[in-house]
Amino acid sequence: MARLIYSGLMSLDGYIADRDGKFDWAEPDAEVHSFVNELQRPAGTYLLGRRMYEVMAVWEHPEDFGDIPDYIRDFADLWKAADKVVFSRTLQDVTTARTRIEREFSADAVGRLKADAGRDVAVAGADLAASAIRAGLVDEFQMFLSPVAVGGGKRFLPEDVRLRLELLEERRFGNGTVFLRYANRSG
């Protein structure tokens, strides 16, 4: 069975976006981005909410970025090679290959996807991840803590869940970012 992994960049106070919806304070440098690429390599499917999909869809056309470093091109290649499932009641069309829309989150359907997948499944977007966390589907959490506190906004973890986590890995980066990887032992 594939693992369902929730990964994200966040502030030290637990937010993936500030009160204004901005997350530029968490933009990874070359070292962090290259590490993210290696973590994403085993993922064969991305589960995305509509807003996260709209943010990530730019990776379909890295040529629009102009002259880009190899680690950026590598991430775009990983994005394009993966299947994508967008959970949205309002999105009418997708603009990326290998992408389908699901109108409702179904814990049973995601559980079947995990059971049938030959590669890991990544969930992105705090609201969608919260649904998967509440359903007990997330196997692993990968957190990149940026050295900044933003004082409020969109939380990485939902407020209404209790989790027991086991630290599997930690790493410090030159820009002050800290990576923490946890297994979900909530049972």
UniProtKB/TrEMBL annotation:
A GO term, aspect molecular function: 5-amino-6-(5-phosphoribosylamino)uracil reductase activity
UniProt GO BP: riboflavin biosynthetic process
Location of the Bacterial bifunctional deaminase-reductase C-terminal domain: 4-179
InterPro entries, A to Z: DHFR-like_dom_sf, RibDG_C, Riboflavin_Biosynth_HTPR
Top-level taxon of origin: Bacteria
Signal sequence segment: none
Protein name: Bacterial bifunctional deaminase-reductase C-terminal domain-containing protein
